[in-house]
Amino acid sequence: MSSLPRIRLKLEPGKFLQIGGAHDALSAVLLEQAGFPAIWVSGFGVSASQFAMPDVNLVTMTESVEATRRMAESVTVPVIVDADNGFGDATNTRRAVREYGLAGAAGVCIEDNSFPKRCSLYPGAPRELISIEEMCQKLEAAKKAAEPFGIFLISRVESLIADRGIPDALERANAYSEAGADAVLIHSKRFAPLREIAKSGKLKKPLIVVPTLFGETPFEEMAECGIAAAIYANQMLRTMVHACRQMAGRMLTVGSLSELDNSLSTVGDVNKLVKVPTHWSEGSLQQPSSNGQSSYGKAPHGKDGHGPTREAATHAS
């Protein structure tokens, strides 16, 4: 069992949860500081930022678990991981969910794309979905692995991305709910079919959406439709790419580094984000201790300078 205190993820009727997508531990910290009550470990983001590779199952389960662990250790809000298609069959899925639990994940999302998956944001990529029966087997295995950790299990339905229509999406969503999913994430290119599904009253579990492809839809409208949560899946990654590309282009053109200062966070700001002890970042250079051991995290007079300890709590959206 993970030694990390776990904050349970919970969706409540009538409340709309906004979930921030992170691609690394620092982006997760920034999202928590901004006020997001939960963090999404973006498979798209991890693939792009940590490996510069497309989101097509090239990141291994172990690599995804380690990315999740780093984020879960860096924040105190619930962390939900995009576990793609479970990295294989039901047996692989069971093992993956257990590993995510040990890494501190509060939620795990499994999708019904075939292996290797193609990211939903690749419109020209070949797209096949596994059968409902096979996906239900994965979810039943995932649920057994999730229970000891209290993991919130999300089933992701790709019917609308694969142009199979609303009836197929509803059939899959409800079958997955019966197989053990606590919520369903139905991905879509447009909001209209999601509005119809949400208002139909036919879903057996709460609905989560990813508005990347219909960013013009107001969040208020989503909430009014009864949608439980929206995931800001890749905005942090895209912001990083936009800002870093501009900075990379400027750095070779300036006469001194000070010309870049207005576009940068201070070193002190970064120090605070990563919890450098205050007496290190604000005081004079510290001399090595007499026994040669690091004094990282030890503030003067024995006070801990490494930030607050994490406490277990229940998160209600």
Tell me about this structure:
It is built from 11 helices and 8 strands. It is of the alpha/beta class. The protein has a single domain, classed as Alpha-Beta Barrel (TIM Barrel). Helix 5 links the parallel strand 4 and strand 5. Helix 1 packs parallel to helix 3 and helix 4 runs parallel beside helix 5. The protein starts with 16 loop residues before the first strand and ends in a 36-residue tail after the last helix. The C terminus is likely disordered.
Categorize the overall geometry.
globular
What percentage of residues falls in helices of 4 or more residues?
Answer: 25-40%
Taking pLDDT < 50 over at least 5 consecutive residues as the criterion, the unreliable ranges are 294-317
Strand order of the largest sheet: 1-2-3-4-5-6-7-8
Q: Please outline the major beta sheet.
A: 8 strands, parallel, barrel
In round numbers, the mean pLDDT is 89
List the total number of helices.
Answer: 11
Q: Would you count the extended β strands for me?
A: 8
| Order of secondary-structure elements | EHEHHEHEHEHEHEHEHHH
What Rg do the Cα atoms give? Answer: 21 Å
Instruction: Give the full name of the CATH homologous superfamily.
Output: Phosphoenolpyruvate-binding domains
Q: Strand portion, in percent?
A: 5-15%
Oligomer: single chain
Please indicate the count of domains.
1
